[in-house]
Design a protein that fits this description.
Elements: E1 4-7, H1 11-25, H2 36-44, E2 48-54, E3 57-67, E4 73-81, H3 90-104, E5 109-114, H4 119-128, E6 132-137, E7 156-162, H5 166-172, E8 186-190, E9 196-198, E10 205-209, H6 214-220, H7 222-241, E11 245-249, E12 254-258
């Protein structure tokens, strides 16, 4: 795990964050996910901006701002880790640092969004961090001109990280929340040729699949990726809109959902 994580506020460090995000999302300098001047203002206004360093090189960064009512929750807007540093728990270390910073300022929760089609992010957020998904947001950010999202609508899951809950404290101590789908029927599965296959069941507990690598699918078979976006929005988004609750996500790519 990366140990050197610190708050950032200098222009040079914030420029390094901008460049790192450009590399991760492959946007180029003309369309960065965030600018150094914005991060400078955010840090000055009391927001959270941190970086993870490996031998003096920035390999991960995260920033967020407080949500109303004042200072009770922090919205974590963007977190990213360089591809060369993946698998070294950099993202986990950044979230632990962010949690301690937020608790020290009286916040009880941290909120953020993630793409529910990205399997590794779903597992990280729901199993490793024990965050609670509360809302499905269709095309939340609108079109995003980068090589990760491409032309895909920016559907997101909104999660709440209750900082002093038993599950979150256990997660921060390294305990994975095991809530696999198990032997329950699927409402959405992987069908022929890797496409989504919707099914029917009256069971109260159901599972919903996502593909193994949606980012590669967007690059090589964009029509298939679009089919997955539509199917997940209809099925998972529909379950949450009807009062359902996501209770977990496993490494095999299944959400477990309790219907209302």
């Amino acid at each position: 795990m990366i140990e050197d994580i610190r708050l950032l506020d200098s222009v040079s460090d914030l420029e390094a964050v901008r460049r790192l995000y450009e590399q991760i999302w492959r946007t180029g300098a003309s369309n960065p996910p965030v600018t150094a001047d914005f991060l400078r203002a955010l840090a000055k206004a009391g927001g959270y901006v941190s970086g993870a360093f490996d031998g003096g090189e920035l390999v991960g960064a995260c920033f967020g701002f407080f949500a109303p009512p004042a200072c009770e929750a922090l919205h974590s807007h963007i977190a990213g880790v360089a591809s060369r540093a993946r698998g070294r728990s950099v993202g986990f270390a950044l979230k632990l640092h962010q949690r301690e910073w937020a608790l020290a300022r009286g916040a009880g929760e941290i909120w953020w969004t993630f793409d529910p089609l990205v399997r590794r992010n779903a597992y990280f957020n729901l199993a490793k961090l024990a965050a609670e998904p509360t809302e499905y947001l269709p095309d939340f950010y609108g079109p995003m001109d980068d090589d990760i999202n491409r032309d895909d609508p920016t559907d997101r899951l909104f999660v709440r990280w209750r900082l002093e809950s038993h599950d979150v404290e256990a997660a921060c101590a390294g305990k994975i929340r095991h809530t696999g789908a198990g032997p329950v029927p699927a409402l959405l599965a992987t069908g022929h040729h890797g496409g989504p296959e919707e099914r029917r069941t009256t069971a109260r507990t159901v599972k919903v699949a996502v593909p193994a690598d949606i980012e590669t699918m967007r690059e090589h078979t964009p029509d298939l990726a679009a089919d997955w976006r539509t199917a997940l929005r209809d099925v998972l988004g529909g379950l949450l809109a009807d009062g359902g609750r996501i209770t977990g996500f496993d490494r095999n790519g299944w959400y477990t959902v309790e219907r209302a």
